[in-house]
Amino acid sequence: MAQHNRAHTKWVVTASVLALTSGYSQLAHAQDTGSTAVDEIIVTAQKREQSIQDVPIAVSAFSAEALDAMKIEGGSELLRAVPNVSFSKSNFSMYNFSIRGIGTKALSSASDPAVAIAFNNSTMIRNRLFESEYMDVNRVEVLRGPQGTLYGRNATAGVVNMIPNLPGPNYEGLAKAELGNFGTVRGQAMVNIPVSDTFWVRAAGSFTKRDGFDYNSFNGNDVNDRDLWSTRLSAAWEPHERFRTNLIWEHFEEDDNRSRTGKQLCTRDQGPTSMAGYTFKTNSFEQGKLPQGCLPGSLYDDAAYGTPQGAGYAFLPIASRQWSTAAGSNYSPFFNFDPFGGVTQSRDLREVSTPIDPVYQVKNDVIQLNVAFDITDNLTLHSQTLYTKDEFYSSQDYMRFASVPLFSDTTGFKSPSGKVTNGPTPGGIYVDPQLGPSTRMLSMDVSKSNNDQFFQELRLQSNWEGSFNFSLGANYTKFETEDNYFVYNNIFTMLAEWFYNYDFAGGMPRVCKDGSKFECIGVDYASLEESDGNGHNYFRSRNVVSTESWAAFGEGYWDINPEWRLTVGLRYTEDEKNSTPYPSQLLLGTWDMLGSGMYSGGRVSWGYPAQPDIVQAWDAFSGRAVLDWKPTDDVMVYASYSRGYKGGGANPPRADIDPRVMQTQPLAELFEPEYLNAFEIGAKITLQDGRLRLNATAFYYDYTNYQVSQIQDRIALNENFDAESMGLEFEAIYNVTPNFRIDGNLGILKTRIADGEQSIDIMDRTQGNDDWVVVRPWAQVPSNCVAPRKYVEKIVSAGRTNMTNALSALCGGGFLAGTFDPTFPWGQKHNLTYGFTYLPFKEAPNGGRGFYADLGGNELPNAPRWTANVGAQYTWNLTGSDVTLRGDYYRQADSYFRVNNTEYDEIRGWDNLNITVTWEVAASNLLLQAYVKNVFDDAPIVDAFTNSDDTLLTTNVFTLDPRLWGVSLTKRF
Length: 973
Fold this sequence. Notes:
Structural class: mainly beta
């Protein structure tokens, strides 16, 4: 029997573990036939149709009915149904889908995802797995473990493959309408039309409108709403029994005020009240030079709902300078030197207080052409062509809480010549060209992304009756992306206008487009909508990357005898990445006559000149070997070895600071590729005449150069760490009776970073060494540094008026900050004033970046030690209809969001309960469903992101959607 089943299986994919079928259709089928056997699931994990129980890979598969029964409405919710999976939105334009502790923690535009997201077996580098909702789906497959042989690059952790329904020869249609809380209105529709016996078309569409989940207490608005829609058009043509083709176009669009991140938390670091006999004024700029803004306290403490020590913003001391008038009096644009003094935050993670509401816009198109030609009865040539285009725009308040009124009234301000100019803030209002007028400090970030991908694969596949079959192929991928990240702040613009560009004779800012006449910083006076992004009065990180990949692969399947099969696959990949660095230019300018900006440290006053391209290339072999044993039709045991690979890349470019004028810390320019050796054993068992399925997997990963990012120097600095991961996975379905079913899964995971691995912890740069102190640098220098306490105390105890400049100079010399290095040619010689010489890049640990934190033995981020889900459903058979009640409970254990594994990094375990009730009238093809998601209305922290030093190390947190309920009616025809 084993030989019979193997020979006549329609090969599609190599998968294992277990699939959940439709909760309703399976039980209804069982009632009609009197059977309680679990339905067979066909998957294409090996790009061949195959029963999931015959595939020696860890795979979970879900039909459209199963997804609907569990209320899994998009890729972000798959974690509730698959063991050892976690998911979170990322801080910028993408997300982190993690399998067995391996995800996408590298944020560079040059980095690749670790989990391949596939549309109908074609992988997409950029996609909308997070935002889009499932529509007219045939099934979703989640493959765990390296799948590089057949799915190619970026599949070191696994694959998520969405298989849409394709046109068929039968006329059919569907209409679905739904109403729910938060003003929810949703709809779906589908129609399949056979135009002729050989040509069929199918159209599907869906939309969701929903009011905001979150409350903005500053302006009284509800934010984080939903307004999105999708459509898919497809056509299939089978003019000959040996030729089949289909063309698919899918479009997704969203335009709403979804929040890209959640609330921003901070355990306030007020800084010292005194040092070396000197008493600091509270919230003074001198005091603000020594705290780091926020401390690494637990995100679950009440103190985490504070605000940073705003006097630590490096640009505020400069912008607060006073202007002398002709009358000899002084004006300052600030009456408050701490923008967040007295500001408190609600402990409700769904409440923010921001002057700026979010904007979220997405357009995504996928076009796929599939062609299959049967060369012989048992040999088929497959072609898959894919093109995707993705556009993304998101803006939101950067700080996630409002500052206090900050600006003084400079009405009556006079220039040194006596001309009345009214200064920068007449009436206590400053007008920023991008952010508009305000009495407060305003800050907004914008994340934009434009992506194009072309993918072509040719595959020759056999389906012989004998003991051997194979799949041979080659593919090509071309991916081009441009990511732009902006941070706007009205203090940036004020500083550029009224300090760097200030005309002392005329008493007004000079307009600056270049440095031909004087040193100046280019201020972009266009509105946010009309700006070309070339100003230096805001931060811009521009990242342009082009990737080309070629691969050839083959996989063979050998039935050694009726019980044993050997699968061997090998893939050779060549990757080339071309990164064009565009350094950031925040508050940088120049004077052409000097060839540099003596005051600002810049090289240009306007625009973002590119540096030479960084071209990287790698080649790698990946593959797998699997031996499986099937002693009976109901038992399979397998053991496998897999090799995974993911390319490296270039870190984003840093600020374009001229090192002749201003010194900065050294950072790595490149990061290395990842490699994974994975070992796995598994068993898939069917018992009790098919009523019970039990699948189990054990695995061990040996990971080299796992890529992880943290924000340093205003860039996502990617680092590499060796690590290992091991665990167990269990999945089960049990049809207790024809009307009652239970199912569930359990994942157990242990990850460990290798001994000897280390990194700078930006939240704790001194690592408890009291002989060193964290110091905040000059405005244009992005990162904090550590300096010897003895020197800090000597500067502070002197109590001189240049204290803030001298403290900044401990991070590196600069024309305005001065220097302790007698060989540095510019700036005040603090070494003469304070009586000591200090070379930070030579004398301080790691060039002043701080002491390394030992990571050996720490857990990987977003790798909960266990995940579990249990579901149960019962069907009551009424006259002419059925009613099904289903509940699903999910829980994941504690984890960490950074590699440092400190108290600050902890993500506590959380759970989720969902309930559905469905009334189905089969004779009328009607289905009425009511559901409640997140029954307990929990708002756990599910992930977090640490912001940069120069924005005071605040933390953006992410949470679940609130309790949602809805009622839908579906009609099939």
